[in-house]
Every structure is written in C-alpha cells, then in structure tokens.
Amino acid sequence: MEKFKTIQDNLIMNSPTFHQNKDGIIFQNFLGNYLTPSTVRESIEKYCTKAGVEYKGTHGFRHTHAVLLLESGASLLFVSKRLVTKQ
Asked: Disulfide-capable partner of 21 in 2, 27, 30, 32 (CB 3.0 to 4.6 Å)?
C-alpha cells in the first residue's frame, strides 16, 4: 500500500489530468472519483494471482484500518464514525 500511495502521489504531482479526491481516498480513478467495489476487488484479485497468494477479499482492509487506528491511540468513537459506510 505504501508503494501504491507513492505512485499515486507522483501521478497527482506530475499529471494535469490526475486529481486527488478531497476525501483523501486511496482507491480512486484519475479524475479523483471513487472506484466501484468491483473494480477494486478485481484489481486486488489480479495482484494476488501475480504474487501467488490466495485472495481473501477486500473486507480485511477495513479490519486492518480499524486495528491500526486503535493501536495508534484513536478513540473507539472516532474509529466507529470513520468506519460508517457512506451511502
């Protein structure tokens, strides 16, 4: 993820057509729009296949994000609000 974010930051800095989403999302298209869940899932599945690891879904990112926030000292209230899905 760190490498992906570095590449994304370089695209934002060096491309007049690539715009960073105001929400600071990681998975976005070059216009800064959210990617569809199927696009994210299919991309991660391809990377898992190339890496020779089993694909276990994208929901694990949510759990990892929550745990990292809690371990860094974020309050349970903050984490719960952050994980609320925007409809």
From this structure: 32
| Pairwise CA distance, residues 22 & 81, whole Å | 18
Report d(CA 65, CA 58) in Å as an integer: 12
Whether the CB-CB separation of 32 and 20 falls below 8 Å is answered with: yes
Q: ∠29-33-35 over CA atoms, to 5°?
A: 60
Q: What angle do CA 38, 39, 42 make, to 5 degrees?
A: 80
pLDDT tens for residues 23-79? 767 677 777 777 888 888 998 999 999 999 999 988 888 899 999 999 999 999 999
Cα(59)–Cα(77) distance, rounded to whole angstroms? Answer: 20
Q: Is 4 helix (H, G, I), strand (E, B) or coil?
A: helix
